[in-house]
Amino acid sequence: MDAAVLSEPGTPRLRQFDDPVAGEGQVVLEVRCAGLNPVDLAVASGRFAVPVPYPSVAGREGIGVAPDGRRVYFSGPVAPYGSLAQRTLMDSRALFDVPDGLDDGVAVALGIAGLAAWLPLTLRAQLQPGETVLVLGATGVLGTIAVQAARLLGAGRVVAAGRDAAGLQRAEQLGADAVVDLTADDLPGALREAAGGGVDVTIDPLWGAPAVAALQAANVGARHVQIGNSAGREVTLTPDFRQTMTSLMGYTTRHVSLADQRTAYAAMTAHAARGEIVVETERIALAQVEDAWARQAAHPHHKLVVVP
To answer: Is 156 helix (H, G, I), strand (E, B) or coil?
Structure first.
């Protein structure tokens, strides 16, 4: 079969790869599309906690067709198989149904990125109706979904923060009450002003200086959920955040139960099927996987979807 194959750390290449064969409790899926994410590049580089056998097929998530004809979302194929191929191998218990009529690209965007937007709000921060939510990195795919999720989950005010002007305008169109340019001279002050006083919940895929500013803009009892570190791995924190009794929380989907993931995915896809969550996507042929890989590394502000 055609597949994006990793023979060493780095960029996968289009190659022929042996077809998967299902063992006990496993199923072979026909891949309709695969989603690209920052984690795919991290895994392929060897910098991530997930070990990579060589050769192996790149990619961690996609939309496929099961042998019984169901259209399903899948994540974490059985090594050495991945999502960037014509077929892949999955644990049969780890498949999420996709609603009829929902676009494949949107369905895959609500997987890794969507779960990392929705579950930090519900499972970790336990967002309460009327609270103010700050989304850092709101111009990326995760951030775009988080802005919409916060609104759907009952936030009283949603603040979108990022560096891309067009992306911030898009965030306003999708439900943000205010936007903040992360290059502002007084970023904590700008965040407090946009929040109308202070922030109750922060969704943070950036870390670095934006995280420090968000902590300085927190209300008493705020929850800061740390998801990623695209703005830097290290920060210098003073103990001032204890004055607001802010909780600094880590989040990773791999420690969330499949039951909770499935429930969250079903909720998001139901909203998307009704047009209540919108995600911009772009399809790229599997034959162009090297170009797609380079574009993902350049941080596109929409979901790249690879089609076999």
So the answer is: coil
Does the pLDDT value for residue 249 go beyond 90? yes
- CA torsion sign for 115, 118, 121, 122 is negative
Interacting residues of 196 by C-beta distance below 8 A, sequence separation 6+: 132, 157
Answer whether 147's CB lies under 8 Å from 118's CB. no
pLDDT digits (tens, 9 = 90+) for 8-31: 999 999 999 999 999 999 999 999
CATH 3.90.180.10 describes domain 113-254: yes
Domain 2-110+279-307 sits in CATH 3.90.180.10 = yes
Grouping H, G, I as helix, E, B as strand and the rest as coil, residue 249 is: strand
Strands 132-136 and 13-16: unpaired
Going by pLDDT thresholds of 50, 70 and 90, the confidence category of residue 240 is confident
Report pLDDT digits (tens) over 130-184: 999 999 999 999 999 999 999 999 999 999 999 999 999 999 999 999 999 999 9
Run of H or E residues at 194? helix 187-195
Spatial separation of the C-alpha atoms in residues 46 and 264, rounded to whole Å:
30
- Residue written as tokens 């603040």? 159
- CA-CA distance, 308 to 98, in Å (whole number)? 19
Q: Where in the chain is the domain with CATH 3.90.180.10?
A: 2-110+279-307, 113-254
pTM, 2 dp: 0.95
Nearest to 6 by CA among 113, 105, 83, 90: 83
Residue by residue, DSSP assigns 98-139 as: --TT--HHHHHHTTHHHHHHHHIIIIIS---TT-EEEEETTT
| Spatial separation of the C-alpha atoms in residues 215 and 86, rounded to whole Å | 45
Distance CA 70, CA 8 (A): 34
144 close to 171: Cβ distance less than 8 angstroms: yes
Pairing of strands 26-35, 13-16: unpaired
